[in-house]
Amino acid sequence: QVQLVESGGGLVQAGGSLRLSCAASGRIFSTNAMGWFRQIPGKEREFVAAISSSGGTTYYADSVKGRFTISRDNAKNTVDLQMNSLSPQDTAVYYCAGQNLPMPTMSRALYHYWGQGTQVTVSS
After folding, report:
1. What is each CA distance from 117 to 27, 81, 114, in whole angstroms?
2. Which of 50, 32, 18 is nearest to 101 (CA)?
3. CA 91, CA 32: separation in Å to the nearest integer?
4. What tens digit of pLDDT does each residue of 29-52 get?
5. What are the tens digits of pLDDT across the range 84-116?
6. What angle do CA 44, 16, 80 make, to 5 degrees?
7. How far apart are CA 88 and CA 96, in angstroms?
8. Which of these, 45, 50, 90, 115, has the minimum number of CB atoms within 10 Å of its CB?
9. Hey, how many other C-beta atoms are within 10 angstroms of the C-beta on 116?
10. What's the CA angle centered on 56, arms 111 and 37, to 5 degrees?
11. What distance in Å separates the CA atoms of residue 92 and residue 121, rounded to the nearest whole number?
């Protein structure tokens, strides 16, 4: 299994930026596709971004395309989410997640490993 711990959340003004980091521990991290999801109270957890095991393929939700960038460093066992031009609609708990397969997907059901989440709040 892969253990995931998110960090980097906080309070930021609209238009600002944050960088979320996910630290992974496990022997097979480099073979796992990774993703970021977010959730607000009363709503379903939604897909944000995903990256293949090699880092060569990325997927983004339409709502964040052009503003968010997912990246990974397999040598350091980390996956990051750079968040720019933030708006209040981005306020949520952000979760790092991992798959057992190298291909990235948008489906929550395909992710078997989850971090504890980190709160991102964007003021209006």
Report:
1. 22, 13, 8
2. 32
3. 27
4. 778 999 999 999 899 999 999 999
5. 999 999 999 999 999 988 999 999 999 999 999
6. 60
7. 20
8. 45
9. 10
10. 30
11. 7
